[in-house]
Write a structure and sequence with these properties.
By secondary structure, this protein is of the alpha/beta class. It is built from eleven helices and 13 strands.
């Protein structure tokens, strides 16, 4: 069984199609299709149902996908251990970060890391918290910047804790308030980040505890667009304080969110049972020594 064939099959599933997988692994679509057919012939069972422009896994495909992910993760661990023999002159830092707040927290750290370890390639993955958790669990990345609480399969170290602030139009009836809570905001539509962002979970869980059922009027992954929507009076949004300060807007009032259990609690997490490459350990050590 060829690891390249397994990689092609796994990427078809991850990317949701043959053409998307071909772009990811820099092969032609015909080469990807041939690799999957070869794997199916070798295993003696169909793995993928081709349904027009989409695909779905057969029962055999579900098993093969799970096992192939584990085998590819083991290969990454093998290569990482061999890289350790070379020291930090070579290697790859495979790290995932969320779009929300990462520039403020990690930009200077990336610059310092690059200056200390110029031979280390930085493979950066940017996704919401839900996807980062999946990628870390599957071994696609070695370290992820994710919000607490952290899954029991992961070890982690603290990075930064920030309170949330509510952003509302300067014409909002609560503009001018130093602190607001969800009861006061219950009649105002909420503007949230796209699905899969862990910050949404913090907000919605706190609303549920308070007995508030918010009306969600818009979702976006673009911070500047959310700020513009708030300034236009479409609704209220919630940012970590440091991010809100960076995106101050003349048409927006910021008020502290007076709700328990709503802190934005950033961590760096890694798989508990997996080998942690030297490049990743160097990143964690740097984070400990910097004021983030």
């Amino acid at each position: 069984m060829n690891l390249r064939t397994l990689r092609a099959f796994v990427e078809v599933v991850r990317q949701g199609g043959f053409s998307q997988a071909a772009e990811t692994v820099s092969l032609t679509q015909s080469a990807i299709s041939k690799a999957v057919r070869t794997l199916e012939d070798e295993l003696g069972l169909p793995l993928i149902n081709r349904l027009g422009h989409r695909i779905e896994l057969t029962p055999a495909g579900e098993i093969a996908y799970r096992r192939a992910q584990a085998m590819l993760a083991e290969r990454q661990d093998l290569l990482a251990e061999l890289d350790e023999l070379k020291g930090l002159q070579k290697g790859v830092l495979r790290i995932g970060i969320p779009p929300v707040g990462s520039g403020v927290v990690f930009a200077a750290m990336f610059a310092t890391y690059r200056s200390r370890y110029p031979g280390i390639e930085i493979a950066l993955l940017e996704h919401g918290g839900q996807k980062l958790n999946e990628c870390l669990h599957n071994g696609e990345i070695d370290v992820a910047a994710i919000l607490a609480p952290v899954h029991a399969d992961f070890d982690f170290q603290e990075v930064r804790v920030e309170p949330l602030v509510a952003l509302m139009s300067a014409s909002h009836p609560l503009a001018g308030s130093d602190r607001v809570d969800f009861t006061q905001l219950a009649s105002t539509p909420f503007i949230l980040f796209e699905g899969g962002f862990a910050l949404n979970r913090i907000i919605l869980d706190a609303c549920e505890r308070k007995g508030v059922q918010p009306k969600i009027t818009a979702r976006s992954a673009q911070i500047d667009f959310i700020v513009d929507l708030v300034a236009a009076g479409l609704g209220v949004a919630f940012f970590p304080r440091m991010l809100a300060e960076k995106h101050r807007h003349a048409g927006i009032w910021q008020a502290a969110l007076a709700e328990p259990g709503t802190d934005w609690h950033m961590t760096l997490a890694w798989r508990r049972q997996a080998y942690l490459p030297p490049a990743a350990r160097a990143w964690l050590e740097l984070a400990k020594g910097m004021q983030l």
